[in-house]
Each structure stands twice: as structure tokens, then as C-alpha cells.
């Protein structure tokens, strides 16, 4: 698309395919119609059901407040799309502009939006993962099955992983008065996302609500009984716990396997794109007709030194979908950058946790408002003397103030906006178990000794 005229023409007779029929895919489709796109629109999804909201699956559904099949995403408008559901994409022919499906069909496109998101990371041992009573929580069906098992009153639940999802599931168990053990390989819950200081607060919160929290240990084996039901877990420290329900909450795996050999810069960290959501190819060249949005996207952010960030946040998916949709049908001079500040929320053990910014891109943290003892405070993060993020426990009304500090590169530590600033306010190291540096998580390495030679090798985590 090289002119306003060609952009207008595409709005009426172009073919757009969206692979990924969840939050980002649906909101992008609606935004395309809002932008005046009247051409052909196809949504491809690997689940047979239409888009639904995922945050309630580890919260309201498991408590019984909302049935698992009542979490459909509200439709903002009619989109007049062809829905291809229950059939995953299997390959992308970039040169031929075709999406290949697992059932052998091919769907041609003029422009493509990749919004395939993430799936739950399964227990590594397939035979143990297949034991009756072992669950993950990612899909509507996952949540519905786990709710049925919790409603039956298990003797004990073991949650493997104390990130946000694992902590929310543990909270649900205690709310239902179900004994629960949480096993976390790190030193504390949430430490991978919020650092060790907030992690220690989260650990105290869990134990105060009766969670048997075991940190610094790894589950090495799940044991089943003669009926094929899970009954016991073995830990790396030699300990065991009897449990008739095990929830594996070890994070997500980005759905990029279908893009292998496609020529895009896609791998285990997601699909790299520019701030306008246009995908990069393996040589670092931006594509004109392939866009990315949602959990699967890796996008540079100017506030964080243009580092490529993969953000599994609800608000990020919605905002990025809007930007991608606009840019797909706009001329180059009218495109938008995706520059919104990341936000996140979680409710666990009666506490509402909200954040703004990217805490993991920090080296220090300080409590700037409220009381840690009362679990009502704001902690502010900094990197090299400037504010980079803030996290609130039951004190979210000031987060817009901290958003402004982040966006204006305000000095760290900042002054609190209210008189409840702790008297002994002193920054401490943020202590993340896997510090993020500029080269961390590189997707491709371009090799070659001649200017016209571009051999590409895909990097692996830690390699």
C-alpha cells in the first residue's frame, strides 16, 4: 500500500485473514469494520467455540460465581466474518500469501494478522500428565473440568507454580476451604514477575490464609494409584505430599510452531514486530502485509529502550489489536505506533493487585505509599535512576500518577503523592530470578561474512 488511494481501495476489496479467534483476534476484527473495511474477513481458531474471556477462568469460574460456558466475550458490533473454528493453522506460505490449515485447506489473504496467543505449558512427563486429577487452566473446558473436581471436595490440591495463575487458583481453594499445597521452584510466589520483595509479601499472604507453601523446591514426579488417579507428588528435597488434584501452573507456550520455516522472525519468545505491529522476517526486515497482536507478539517499547516485550496482558491484547487493525487498512503516513503503557491486575486472598509498567525491567524497588503490614500499599520500581513500574496492593487509585512518572522518565525514587509515605522509605534491590538484559530473549541471529550473504540461525533460550 503506497498511497491514500490504494489504502482506500483495499478497504473495499481486500482480503484479511486473522489467525487466532480469541480476544485480540475478535477485537481486531471489530476494529477493522470500525475503520471502514468492507472486504473479505476470515477468522481462524483452533477451538470450536467462539471467543471467550480468559481472566475469569482462574477466578470467577473456579469459585462457582460464573459457569464456564458463560464467559463469552461481548460483541461490540457485527463483523460479517467467515469463522473457521476447531481447525488450527498448520503453516504459512509467505510468498504465496496462503494460510494452510491442519485439515488440508488453504486460505488466501492480502493481509494477515497473527493473534495465536499462548497455550498452557503441560506437565513434561506425558504419562504423569495423563493421570486422572492432573489439570491445567487455559481454556474454557479446562476451567469447567477443574471446577467440577473442586466442587466434589478433594482432600488436597497441589498447585505447581506460584505465578499469578497458580496463586489465584490457590486462593480459590482456600476460599472454598480446600486444603492446598503450592510448590514453587523460586524463593517466593510472584517473584518472577514482581521481584523478591513483593514475593516475600505474597508468601506471607498465602501462609496467613492457610496455604502450605513450599518454595525453593521442584516437583520431580507425580505418582498415580492402581486406578490411574494422581495420589502423590515427590519433591526435589525428598519430601512428598498426598493430593488427589494437581494443577500445573507453569506459564504459557506461545503458539508459533505453525510458523516454522515461514520466513518470519518467530520462535519460542513469540513473533517479532515493529511498534506498528508489522511482523519482521528472519533477516530483520519488516513485512508489509503480515501483522501481529496479543500475547504472541514481541514489540519494541520506547520507554524501555526499545526492548522487545512479550506481554500476556488483557489490556495489551485489546490495545495492540486496535493498532494492528488501523495500520492494516491505512496508508504509511497514517499508521499508529503501539505505545500504550502495560497494565495488569490480579485478585487473590482478598487483595486486589494491580500494576503499571514493566517491573522486570528494574533493578530497585521501594514502597512509596501505604503499609506493607496491612497489605495496602504501592511499590515503585526503578532502573538506573528513573521510574519504570509500580505495583499496588489494594491501593490502585494512584496508579495513573505512577503511569505519568514512568512516561516522563521521572527520577527514582519518587516522592509519594500522599502523606502516607513510609517514614523509612529506602530502595532495595528488586532481585528478579532471571534479570532481563538487552540481549535477553533474542529471536534470531543473522550470520554471514559477505554483505550479500544472510544465513539465519534460530537461538534457543539459554543458548
UniProtKB/TrEMBL annotation:
Record keywords, A-Z: FAD, Flavoprotein, Oxidoreductase
InterPro entries from the UniProt entry: FAD-oxidoreductase/Apoptosis, FAD/NAD-bd_sf, FAD/NAD-binding_dom, FAD/NAD-linked_Rdtase_dimer_sf, Reductase_C
Reductase C-terminal domain boundaries: 344-415
Domain spans labelled FAD/NAD(P)-binding: 15-321
Gene3D superfamilies per UniProt: 3.30.390.30, FAD/NAD(P)-binding domain (3.50.50.60)
Entry superkingdom: Bacteria
SUPFAM superfamilies the UniProt entry points to: FAD/NAD(P)-binding domain (SSF51905), FAD/NAD-linked reductases, dimerisation (C-terminal) domain (SSF55424)
Cofactor: FAD
Alphabetical list of PANTHER family matching this protein: APOPTOSIS-INDUCING FACTOR 1, RIESKE DOMAIN-CONTAINING PROTEIN-RELATED
Full protein name: NAD(P)/FAD-dependent oxidoreductase
Species this protein is from: Streptosporangium vulgare
Amino acid at each position: 500500500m503506497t498511497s491514500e488511494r490504494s489504502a482506500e481501495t483495499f478497504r473495499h476489496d481486500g482480503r484479511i485473514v486473522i489467525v487466532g479467534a480469541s480476544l485480540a483476534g475478535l477485537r481486531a476484527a471489530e476494529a477493522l469494520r470500525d475503520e471502514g473495511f468492507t472486504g473479505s474477513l476470515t477468522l481462524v481458531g483452533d477451538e470450536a467455540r467462539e471467543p471467550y474471556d480468559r481472566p475469569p477462568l482462574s477466578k470467577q469460574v473456579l469459585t462457582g460465581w460464573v459457569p464456564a460456558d458463560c464467559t463469552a466475550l461481548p460483541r461490540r458490533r457485527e463483523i460479517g466474518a467467515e469463522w473457521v473454528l476447531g481447525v488450527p493453522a498448520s503453516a504459512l506460505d509467505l510468498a504465496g500469501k496462503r494460510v494452510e490449515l491442519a485439515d488440508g485447506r488453504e486460505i488466501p489473504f492480502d493481509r494477515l494478522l497473527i493473534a495465536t496467543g499462548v497455550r498452557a505449558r503441560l506437565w513434561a512427563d506425558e504419562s504423569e500428565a495423563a493421570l486422572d486429577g492432573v489439570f491445567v487452566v487455559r481454556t474454557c473446558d479446562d476451567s469447567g473440568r477443574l471446577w467440577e473436581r473442586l466442587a466434589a471436595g478433594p482432600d488436597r490440591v497441589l498447585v505447581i507454580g506460584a505465578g499469578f495463575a497458580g496463586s489465584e487458583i490457590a486462593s480459590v481453594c482456600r476460599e472454598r476451604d480446600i486444603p492446598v499445597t503450592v510448590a514453587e521452584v523460586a524463593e517466593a510466589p510472584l517473584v518472577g514477575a514482581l521481584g523478591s520483595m513483593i514475593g516475600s509479601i505474597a508468601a506471607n499472604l498465602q501462609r496467613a490464609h492457610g496455604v502450605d507453601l513450599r518454595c525453593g523446591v521442584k516437583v520431580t514426579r507425580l505418582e498415580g494409584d492402581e486406578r490411574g488417579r494422581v495420589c502423590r507428588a515427590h519433591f526435589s528435597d525428598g519430601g512428598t505430599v498426598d493430593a488427589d488434584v494437581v494443577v500445573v501452573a507453569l506459564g504459557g507456550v506461545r503458539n508459533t510452531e505453525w510458523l516454522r520455516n515461514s520466513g518470519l522472525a518467530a520462535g519460542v519468545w513469540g513473533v517479532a514486530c515493529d511498534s506498528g505491529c508489522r511482523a519482521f522476517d528472519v533477516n530483520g526486515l519488516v513485512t508489509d502485509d503480515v501483522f501481529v497482536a496479543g500475547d504472541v507478539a514481541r514489540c519494541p517499547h520506547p520507554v524501555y529502550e526499545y526492548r522487545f516485550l512479550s506481554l500476556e496482558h488483557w489490556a495489551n491484547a485489546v490495545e495492540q489489536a486496535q493498532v494492528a487493525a488501523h495500520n492494516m487498512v491505512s496508508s504509511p503516513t497514517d499508521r499508529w505506533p503501539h505505545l500504550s503503557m502495560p497494565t495488569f491486575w490480579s485478585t487473590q486472598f482478598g487483595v486486589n493487585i494491580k500494576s503499571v509498567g514493566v517491573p522486570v525491567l528494574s533493578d530497585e524497588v521501594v514502597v512509596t505509599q501505604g503499609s506493607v503490614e496491612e497489605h495496602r500499599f504501592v511499590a515503585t520500581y526503578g532502573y538506573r535512576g528513573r521510574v519504570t513500574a509500580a505495583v499496588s496492593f489494594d491501593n490502585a487509585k494512584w496508579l495513573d500518577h505512577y503511569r505519568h512518572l514512568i512516561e516522563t522518565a521521572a527520577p527514582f525514587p519518587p516522592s509519594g503523592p500522599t502523606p502516607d509515605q513510609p517514614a523509612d522509605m529506602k530502595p532495595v534491590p528488586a532481585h528478579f530470578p532471571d534479570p532481563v538484559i538487552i540481549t535477553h530473549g533474542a529471536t534470531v541471529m543473522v550470520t554471514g561474512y559477505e554483505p550479500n550473504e544472510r544465513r539465519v540461525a534460530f537461538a534457543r533460550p539459554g543458548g
